[in-house]
Structure formats: structure tokens, C-alpha cells
TrEMBL record:
InterPro entries, per database record: FAD-bd, FAD-dep_Monooxygenase_BioMet, FAD/NAD-bd_sf
Taxonomic path: Eukaryota, Fungi, Dikarya, Basidiomycota, Agaricomycotina
Keyword Cytoplasm included in the entry's annotation: no
Domain FAD-binding: start-end pairs: 17-376
Matching PANTHER family: MONOOXYGENASE, PUTATIVE (AFU_ORTHOLOGUE AFUA_2G01950)-RELATED
Residue ranges crossing the lipid bilayer per the database entry: 12-34
Species assigned in the record: Rhodofomes roseus
Protein name (record): FAD-binding domain-containing protein
Amino acid sequence: MSDTAPSQAAELLVIDFVIIGGGISGLTAAIGLARAGQRVTLLEQADDFQETNLAGGCRLAPNMTRLYFRWGLEQQLRDIAYMQQYVCFMRSETGESAAQGEWVHDFKVESGGVFLGMHYADFRRLLYETAVKSGATIRTNAKVASADLDAESPSVTLECGEKIAADVIVGADGTHSVSRSLMLEHDEMRPTGMVLHNAIIPMDKMASEPGLAEFLPKDGLGTAWSWAGHTCGVIGFPTKREEFHLHIYAPESGRENLPTKSPVNMSTSEELIAIMRKEGCESRLTKMVEMATRVMVLPVIDKPELDDWVHDCERYVVIGEAAHPLTTGSLYALSIAAGDGMMLGRLFSYLHRPEQIGSFLAAFAENRHRRVQAIKRAQSTNPASMSMPPGVLQAKTLKGVVESMGDAEAAWYTEEAIRDIFSVDPEEEADDWWVQWGLVEERAARILPGTFEFKILKTHSSR
């Protein structure tokens, strides 16, 4: 696979894209489309990309790091992230190890990438800087108020009244968004009874505490730590900000009135410690939380995935969390959002005629929808799939599995998730679609100009 987009300079049709939203999916799409030679304007409602407010730690799966490495970002990513070369699954009540090892040798990660743990704000800033260098126009303080989805010239209108037209509009504005309101009559939010706490602990404090130093990076390499309980689970990892991040899933326990429209709310270490003691978490976890300088809490909300990601006008497509909200804190959420942007950019490196736009968007939606369904299946049935700790949201169905899971079984479950999820290459899938289907359309159009039209049917019966 080449480390650049396909060379189509002589025949490439260059069109205008407007991307709504400057999160991971929107910024990755901006980079991918700009790399493909398209004109891109990204609209972000916040004022800058330097320090994302209320952001915490995030993890990036190896197949996605491989693609960012391919884009020339390997050194920049290594500068802001710890490679999570090792993994350890433990029981939250005792700290007893259920399975552990090195990703490549023991759990068969063969994608060519590495697991990375980093601060979301650092990752987002890197993507912003890369998008600007790639030629995308990034506008801040540009909140979209509405969209006019005219098939000939779709446009968005900002709160200030400015109207911006484009050939294609990409909705990457998340779960509470203009995009979802355009695609859904009723965007239902269903509380799950769970919340995610994000506790940030200075690593120098942990280094001085007996029993906690083992969780810190060694020789520049980190470990992904996962504690599993019946109704509580924890994931811990270090970042280059010299912080250790704990993602703690637990029942609401007095947080029943947590605002669902506010993505992040502040909490206290005392409140979180009380929850963890109630859940019977091991003492090392409570010690870490006692040291936390910041604790944030997010409601775990179930929101429906869109049935159709492409509007009927065939010039508006929804990607990332706007199209397919995954469980709060899921490893897959970040990777799938990035994969959406990568595939979209790669497909439009093959654009020759305006008539192809609808086919490209439909092909993107069909392919990515299948990927999201595979991830949801893994997330709901695989207790070691790394979407979240075992026991969370699946306490009844997974209780017996968690209790009986030994080293060999945990390794098998993890390898299965890796085979199904972590080896996917969105750019290769775009190339495969072009070879198998896109070229058929293109050749037919050239042989029978004006009389042949080929489209990927947006049917859902085959999913």
C-alpha cells in the first residue's frame, strides 16, 4: 500500500466540501479529502483547537495508528502518546490477573500498528495542525444553525447569518447535532443506568506510593490495565502529560439526575471513592482515585444509529458519532470515527465526474455501516473486546463468563475481537470498492455516455 493517496491528478474532479464539526472524524475527513486533492472547509463552533475543554484520556487502536503513520504522523503521535505494548486483565474486587501479555506476540495483533494512549486534547490539536498543513480551511467560532439540502447546491447557514455553499456537506458534529436533527425526526436518548468517571492522577504521586508504581510506563512503554467486575469496570493507561487516566464504569449511584445533554460534568474524588467502595473495588484503585486532581463524569447514554447516513439529496453525508453513537468511552468510538474520515477521503481521490458523488457516498455508508454493526456485536458479546471492561452493561449475560474466564479463554476472546475489528484498513476497503465496483461504473459511463447510470442501492435488508 502506498503511503500517499492514488495519483489521479490528470483526471481528478475537484469539488468543494464543507465539514461540520472539528472532532476526530471531522478533522480526519478534512485531512483525507485534502490529501485527495479536494477543496475542504471545516466549520468548528468552538474558538480554537489548542486545548479542548474538559477532555480526558483516549486510546487509539493499532489499525488506525498504522494509517496515521502512513500519513506521516508517526513521530508526532509518539511524541504525545505512550505505546501500550502490554495488556493485563484483572478482577476488580481482588486485582487478581485473569490474562496478560504483549499485544503482538501473545494476542496476535498483526495490523502493523500499535495501541496508543494519549490525551484527547493533544490528539485533536495534532489533527488540526495536520489538516491546516494539508490545505484544508479551518474556521472557528462558526456554529452551524441550519442546512438547506438542495440537490443542486446544498448549503449551511451559520448563527451569524452567513451562508456557505458546497458540492458535498459532511456532518461530523457529534451526537447533539444539526446533522442528527436533519436525519431523524425523533432523536431518542435512553439512559443505561451507568456512568463513566474519568479520573486523572499525576504519575509522580503514583511513583511514590508502594504498589502503584507498577502501573507506570517502563522504558517508554505503557500497559493497558483493565479491571472487570459484575457491575463495575475500569480501564487505566498513562499519557505523555505524565498523567494516569482511569475510566471507571459504574452504576449511577445517586447520579440519576445527571444532565444527558451536557457531555461532561465535574465530580469529586470523594464521591468516586464512595462508589468504588460500594462496588467492592480493590484498594489500589481507591488509592489512585484519592490522588486524582480531576474527576469528570459522563452519562452512558444509548442513542440510535442512523438507518441512512446519506440524505436523499445525495450531497449530505453524516459520519462519526453523528451517524453511529457508540458506548461512552469505547475504544472503538475513536477508531471508527477516524476510519470514517479515512475512507471518505480515499474514495474521493477517484472522483472524475459529478455523477459519481452519489455512488461514492452510498458506497461509503454501506461499508462503514457494516463495520459499525460488527463492532456492536463484539461490544455486546465479547467480554475481552476492549470496548469497555467486562461486566458493564452486560452483567447478567457475562457474569458467568467473567467468573470462569482463565488465561487461555481471555486470550481467545481478545484475538477474536482483534481479527474482526483491529485489522480493518478503511483506505484499502475504499481501493477494493473502486476496483470491484467504481471502475465498472466509470467504464460503462465512458462506453455509453449519457445512457448508463450505476448506483449502489441504499438498501438495508441485506445488513
